[in-house]
Specification:
1389 residues, eleven-stranded mixed sheet, 34 strands, 12% strand, hydrolase
Length: 1389
Amino acid sequence: MSSSVRRKGKPGKGGGKGSSRGARGGRSHTNKSHGGGGGGGGGSAGNRKASSRIWDDGDDFCIFGESRRSSRPSNSSIRKGEARPRWKPEVKVPLQTLHMTSENQEKVKALLRDLQEQDADAGSERGISGEEEDDEPECDDEQYWSAGREASLVPDCDPLEYAGSGPVEPQSPEFTVSTFAVQKLSRYGFDTERCQAALRLCDGDVGASLEHLLTQCFSETFGEKMKSSEAVVHVSLDECVEQRQEEAFALKSICGEKFIERIQNRVWTIGLELEYLTSKFCKSKQRESTKNTQDATLEVCKFYLKGNCKFGSRCKFKHEVPPNQIVGRAERIVDDSHLNAHEDASFLYELEIRFSKDHKYPYQAPLVAFYSTNENLPLACRLHISEFLYGKALTFAETSEPVVYSLITLLEEESEIVNLLTNTHHKYSVPPVNFLPVSSGTRINNPVCRKPMIPNNSFASNQIPEVEKESEPEEETDEDEGPAPVIVENESYVNLKKKISKRYDWQAKSVHAENAKICKQFRIKQASRQFQSILQERQSLPAWEERETILKLLSEHQVLVISGMTGCGKTTQIPQFILDDSLNGPPEKVANIICTQPRRISAISVAERVAKERTERVGLTVGYQIRLESVKSSATRLLYCTTGVLLRRLEGDTALQGVTHIIVDEVHERTEESDFLLLVLKDIVLQRPTLQVILMSATLNAELFSEYFNSCPVITIPDPHPHRPIPLSSVLRYVLQDGSPYMRSAKQMTKEKLRARRSRTAFEEVEEDLRLSLHLQPQDSVKDAVPDQQLDFKQLLARYKGVSKSVIKTMSIMDFEKVNLELIEALLEWIVDGKHSYPPGAILVFLPGLAEIKMLYEQLQSNSLFNNRRSHRTLNVLLSSFRCVVHPLHSSLSSEEQQAVFVKPPAGVTKIIISTNIAETSITIDDVVYVIDSGKMKEKRYDASKGMESLEDTFVSQANALQRKGRAGRVASGVCFHLFTSHHFNHQLLKQQLPEIQRVPLEQLCLRIKILEMFSTHNLQSVFSRLIEPPHTDSLRASKIRLRDLGALTPDEKLTPLGYHLASLPVDVRIGKLMLFGSIFRCLDPALTIAASLAFKSPFVSPWDKKEEANQKKLEFAYANSDYLALLRAYKGWQLSTKEGMRASYNYCRQNFLSGRVLQEMASLKRQFTELLSDIGFVKEGLRAREIEKRAQGGDGILDATGEEANSNAENPKLISAMLCAALYPNVVQVKSPEGKFQKTSTGAVRMQPKSEELKFVTKNDGYVHIHPSSVNYQVRHFDSPYLVYHEKIKTSRVFIRDCSVVSVYPLVLFGGGQVSVQLQRGEFIVSLDDGWIRFAAASHQVAELVKELRCELDQLLQDKIKNPSIDLCTCPRGSRIISMIVKLVTTQ
């Protein structure tokens, strides 16, 4: 073994003089000294702390232990005459150390020991061997933490070698054998009794036990042949080690990742894929035989009857309720996939080569073992294969030849091995005849007479021909020994669908009685003067003219598409046509209509408008329902709701009982939810012929929806207020000045010509040359497909005949890719102050994004005509002294600021609204007469391969342009100015924008599909392929991977318990996971606060004129390098201020640049989330958002409603950060720091902190990213941990992560995704996850194994809790101890 790995001394300390705490002796390299080597002199850097080490990406474990070269070029490496390369400091990720105090180590060991004993009790009650208990993942390096002793390490080592850093305890006289160690050894083919005996003999050391068993087994077969010849004694050990290293290098090259050097120069393993073995031993026969045996002899599992059997389908007892017993348990599906986790974790077969200490291979034969996790391969066959291979190794040793590759070849050749499989008996695969009883450390009532523990993966009949098979009475008592299983009192997650469906039970008798009352009231109302007055207004709308046609077609067809421009009355009138017509008929024929809206605000406003037209208040015959808020009654027959609400209803009521009509409004917007709803409705109309569906679209694509529903009829309603196209050149003379930023440069013009030429094919080039040479077409004419940007003056003149040359000249030099703010300002001046006959009214300007809005706003403020700076401090009556008032409008503004756009200004004052496309459909401003459309917008795009959303500047579609035009003149004729040409509209713009489902992540939709009963058995690809326009397969594949990483979806696309709960929460899956973990770890209130902010938006505001001051205030809330903890502090301060009154709350928000409206919305969301968690059993039952709000005395009322137990850790910021890690993983960023600079001082060289811009931030899949300037971590120069978690990244000018939080070692190890692995690398135990992308150095091997075992227990506990939310972890002894231990480690380490 090389000196870099073998050394005397503890892993946590240097072995030489220069070592000190944290410096590893095994890290000595050329040109670098990292503490003393094994017994040698200490290095100069021996006094460095371990936590300051740097992990380089190239710092992988080398099987030869060769020294690393310095990153700086040495003098010798530079040839004479060559220029000396300039050295640049590299950025690296600091490798942090996983520490654990000796006190915590003792507590964790005690906890794990107790938990393992409880598992042993459960196993003995079922007669299960270690082979059955597959709850825990295997330890890869054959190193196990055994109950009642220190960590067992590498076999045949010096006792001091690899010893842990903690104090060594004396071995307990009653040594308990680890069931996992027994399981590991039995997979080599040895009987469990022999495994237990060997482990006791070797003090629990798995490696030493295996070598002992192999030597014993081979000695009986080969005897004298195993002895080495006298010549071997004279062979140099160094020569043997060198040959072994060369062979390892060759095997690594040949086998790749299949070859692993588990312990350097000691243990090699090679993964094998032996299809002939797998196919020979069919699983079905084995399962049938074992099942028949079990059914005949075994009793009913008592833990199953109590509802808490962790073994699931692999339990040795029956999982059925006796016919004479009253069912006292809640039915639940047990997900036992965790019991088979090892099957996919590694290869099904492995060849293992072991070299003892001072072994002189290839002159001596190594120990050879064949290992398999194939439960159907008999144990005896494994040993016969091992003996056969060892015999070959002895033959090769006689000629001193390397043997490993030859052994691999033999195993892959079926002919040699198949002959060995006929003999299914071996002495060492069955118990010894006179086996000794187990020590009293293992809990067994009658150890002398107990049955031998036989793994389920063996052929029992062949292996134990003469073993006594006494039936032992089942243990009924012994409940004092450990905590009793929790009895499930409430229904578990699988019964929640029943609870949902009860809400929609349709009682025909009561409905008909209610209908009779409604019909009577409607007839009376029709005679009223007020109703008749409003009816006349309704009859003036274009939709009224199509009333009879619509009703006639509905009587003949099940599905109907209605197309009509904005303002025609389709949303308000068509549902009333259907309702009024049915109210004039018999009560049993009264319609029950649901009309979906894409946004909450539109559902509320339309319901209020329709109720007003029917001269009643909202909640009677007309109501609305949005997320967790509904205003309706038993009399409601027309319900406006968001699309999401209807999809939620479908989860429990797939047939939509009692509903007669579904109207999907604004279907042209092509939202993710509306597209999915169309798919669901397409299936439902086949099952329910009486259900009628009406799709309403405002734009051109009505035929697309008609074809999707089997060419159903289409009705088109005429435009209510036709808008005349007005050439911009006829009202405005705009000339580009020299040097204008909106002028195309000569370089840009050249590029455009080259681009135009490249876009033409060779055929088109020839065709154009012929046309020109034969004069078939004027020289300046061009194809319609060529954009204006690529044409010169003459070509533009030919394209736009009749347009003045001055306008064409301006067009020929204008940059059409930019939004021309100069042109918009000139147009605004003409509208406000020019001579024209158009009516006065508000002006709505559409711009792509916030940056353009800010630029135009500041530009207008510098113009005396538009300047309204004093208006913010002036009373409304004095506004008349100003000509204009300018309001920006975008989604990041607070609700108070957005409301200002609806206020009508005094006479003579023109209101100018500068908006993003939020004003296109989301809101309606009645007094708008003029619309200026820049023709650009920002659209969310999603890169599935990178998992990244970006905001791209794009041209609007024709549908968008028509929608914008429709915003002008809602109550009268209006004027719309499009800042692009008619040719651009007709030939360059897409007809429709890309559907949302093709440009957003699909995780939430995947969960929704799986939770719907109609799709639960379908695979996701088949469902998505039936959508009106399916998303790309790469996007779906990426979403499935993320859901599997999150633990929400199984590999075969089944919902896990966590997935079911996440699907029930109407939020992003990561936000949902944060809420669930917050409730489990008793920090519910802060988890809900952060979840509400992520689901809505940040309460921090940043006014344009006070940006620096606002940023400074936000930094005052900063804590522990976390944007989320800063948010928590700001929210808590607001809650305290609300208790002092409204005035104090207002002042707090104003002083700290917070939006009071956003904070109130967050409080409302928190109450709604609490109600959801109550419904699914994660907080106390019966909590309702409205009741919490009523009882709240200042603040949101969550703490009082949920109680102290649910929030006992609410003031623990480290635990809250850990919950964020659990929820947001794998959204992790590495922080790479430069190598560090030093400054000379009087006391010596002092390390300088790097500048913030020198830090680099890297994600696993996207490379370098940047922290957004709005984050509290934007200017941070040092992070305590080199890892950050984030919620979303977005691409604008660069790739940014918006909000982020530092996460330390323990949260990542305990809550990070994937399996935790522990490996020995260069003398250190490296704990890694996520395929090694995240790595830590353990302070000792014991710490590494303790953390790994604790992680397994935590995973099992969380799985149990999520399966059965009613389990109270506060009172459950097992759960409360694990949670308390996790909280202590996260908080104190």
